[in-house]
Amino acid sequence: MPNETSTKADQTHREPVPGHNIIVIGASAGGLEAIIQLVSGLPPDLPAAIFVVVHFPSHGTSILPQILNRSGALLAAHPEDGDRIQNGHIYVALPDHHLLVKRGYVRLVRGPRENSHRPAIDPLFRTAARAYGPQVVGVVLSGVLDDGTAGLLAVKPQGGVAVVQDPKSALYAGMPESAIANVRVDYILSLADLAPTLVDLAAKPVIEGVKAVSEEMESETDMAELDLAALQRHERPGTPSGFGCPECGGALWELREGDLIRFRCRIGHALSAESLLAEQSDGMESALWSALRALEESAALADRLADRAYKRNHPLTAERFAARAQDAAESAALIRQALLKSEATATTEPVLAESASDQTEDA
Predict the structure, then answer these.
(1) Strands 89-92 and 75-77
(2) How much is the pLDDT for 141?
(3) Phi, psi for 151 (deg, rounded to 5)
(4) Which H helix or E strand runs over 76?
(5) Is 147 known to be catalytic?
(6) What does the alpha-carbon distance between residue 105 and residue 88 come to, in Å, rounded to a whole number?
(7) Secondary structure of residue 34 in the 3-state scheme
(8) pLDDT above 90 covers what percent of the chain?
(9) pLDDT digits over 143-178, tens only?
């Protein structure tokens, strides 16, 4: 009968696995060039599978796999739902579909948007961390705002490795800077150092043993797949925030991970604080344009009614309509000034061209 010491040793023992063989990569504005350079430095016998999410327009067409096949030695493709995971392959997210990692296979789902994107970076990182734990390497490349930060915060507690492009080498430093500020990043690398580091990590053995994930993380990964049980749970991760979801109008729950604040609604739409602020700004602008249109139309209609009253010799009625037209025109002028001011001061995310012609040109 084993003694107590040997029993404890057996309980903590883990068998080594080949290496960090699940590499998840997220990029946004300026990230296409970084991915191409990274892939070009990877060998054909890389003992790892790579998963890539770039913020594609939902209704665009992606030829990123073709570009990566021309740029490097690994086989890149848009996977089909349920495809088996194989080393030496690059799985690229389809437009308008989240790319999720399950144990041994991939999932493509049209689940709720995260940070207003589908595909989104954080669901990929989160599901990979849940399925493979310490085997995962999360890589955040160029982009604005803070996408990828929450994903890395899911990778690290499960024993995975966090890699971030050096903000100085990124065309847009927002995403790398956010990751560095909120996550205990393992590597901050220039583009030239990314590929060699990933090759080393893929060959470096890790200790097997995926940790149990928190109920909050389990719920969030299930929501990404539109899991009915997760969507129908009465309990929600986090606390009511008092804010509305810009996607569906539902109540948002606030989640905190260290200093990072995030929000998620009942049906699964998720936003970081920065993304929510950006969406609120867009919503306010849309409301202002609607108000401007309504006031301009009101002024024009009141002017017509005033002209008609003058022609019919009803001066008091004409003056009343003319005053209403003047009020509407003055209000419209104020809104027009506000729109011009916001246009001059707003910082908007650059559009990442993903059309066939733009991608071919970038390659």
Answers:
(1) parallel
(2) 97
(3) -65, -45
(4) strand 75-77
(5) yes
(6) 14
(7) helix
(8) 49
(9) 988 999 999 999 999 999 999 999 999 999 999 999
Rounded Cα distance, 262 and 276, in Å: 9
Residue pLDDT, tens place only, 321-351: 999 989 988 888 888 887 787 665 554 444 4
Which residues, 6 or more positions from 65, have their beta carbon under 8 angstroms from its beta carbon? 76, 77, 78, 90, 92
Return d(Cα 303, Cα 239) in angstroms, integer.
51
User: 149: exposed, middle or buried (C-beta count within 10 Å: 0-12, 13-18, 19+)?
Assistant: buried
Q: Give the model's confidence band at 68: pLDDT under 50 very low, under 70 low, under 90 confident, else very high.
A: very high
Question: Which residue in 122, 146, 147, 186 is the catalytic one?
Answer: 147
Total length of the chain: 363
Structure tokens at 278: 């950006």
**Separation between Cα atoms, residue 341 and residue 337, nearest integer Å:** 6
Which residues partner with 99 through β-bridges?
108
The torsion of the CA quartet 155, 353, 344, 293, rounded to 10 degrees, works out to: -110
- Within 8 A by CB and 6+ apart from 362, the residues are 32, 33, 36, 67, 353
Q: Which of 123, 39, 54, 129 is nearest to 94 (CA)?
A: 54
Catalytic residue, from 28, 62, 219, 272: name it: 28
Number of Cβ atoms within 10 Å of the Cβ of 78: 17
28 belongs to the catalytic site: yes
- Short-list 60, 76, 65, CA closest to 118: 60
Q: Give the phi and the psi of residue 338 in degrees, each rounded to 5.
A: -65, -40
pLDDT winner (highest mean) among 179-193, 212-226, 323-337: 179-193
- Kindly state the tokens that stand for 59: 């209704």
Cα 248–chain centre separation: 17
